[in-house]
Design a protein that fits this description.
Spore Coat Polysaccharide Biosynthesis Protein SpsA, Chain A; six-stranded mixed beta sheet
């Protein structure tokens, strides 16, 4: 019988900073009831990670995919990535810029969606692209703006079978995104814009529903009803985020 879900924590640079350590320790505690797998390149020095969890499971890929977040995004557009975790139905990709507020992972796996990720963050002066605009296709400059809206947005839940089927069905488009170095966060643009153009390859929630899954930490206002997780967290903004100002000192 397959596992329902595994948590994947990518380690691009093994010398993680104190903020990433804080996010890592919290992830290990909050998601301890699920298999947690680290993914990085072969022979990476994970001594800092092992200070937080000595017996860790690691799956490696070629080093070129861990040179930057841009390179890692290309890996997330390859069938091989998802095939390596075919012992489970779902993957929660949890980059070290996200914080799970409450353990609702099992709940979200059972909601019938194939791909869930919080939406991009655009400048306040910019109106969101309409459904018609997204269906017709974005220009290259518009894609770059869209990709920038996903900076540090590193948390999503996906159904492995549907991700690989989508990549097979859109092989040419996925190949173009993998090799377009001008696009920031090409994986997010592909999964959000291209995957369901002309044909619904993935079951995805409405904007309102996905706001209950995850929200950008900068925009989150400590509402009475919290999402499953926050994302968009970095060493440059964590001290200014309202959520972290209200945590007990022990956190």
């Amino acid at each position: 019988m397959k596992e329902l879900v595994s948590v994947i924590i990518p380690i691009l640079d093994p010398q993680i900073n104190p903020t990433e350590e804080k996010l890592l320790q919290h992830a290990l505690e909050m998601l301890s009831g699920y298999p947690i797998i680290f993914t990085t390149y072969e022979h990476a020095d994970l001594s800092i990670v092992k200070e937080h969890s000595e017996n860790i499971d690691v799956v490696t890929f070629p080093k070129r995919f861990f040179e930057s977040r841009q390179h890692f995004g290309k890996l997330l557009l390859m069938e091989d990535f998802y095939d390596r975790f075919n012992w489970c139905d779902f993957l929660l990709i949890h980059e070290l810029n996200s914080w799970v507020i409450k353990d609702e992972l099992h709940y979200w796996c059972k909601q019938g969606y194939d791909y869930i990720k919080s939406g991009p963050v655009f400048p306040s002066s910019m109106a969101p692209y309409s459904t018609v605009k997204r269906l017709m296709g974005l220009s290259e400059p518009e894609k770059r703006v869209y990709g920038e809206g996903y900076t540090d947005n590193g948390l999503y839940l996906c159904r492995i079978e549907r991700m690989t089927a989508t990549l097979k069905g859109k092989k040419k488009t996925a190949h173009q995104y993998r090799h377009d170095d001008s696009l920031p966060n090409p994986d997010s643009i592909f999964w959000d814009i291209e995957a369901n153009r002309f044909w619904p390859h993935l079951r995805k929630p409405t904007d309102i529903v996905r706001s209950h899954f995850a929200q950008d930490g900068v925009q989150y206002k400590n509402n009475k009803t919290s999402p499953f997780a926050l994302t968009g967290i970095s060493k440059d903004n964590i001290q200014d985020l309202p959520y972290f100002k209200t945590l007990p000192e022990t956190e």
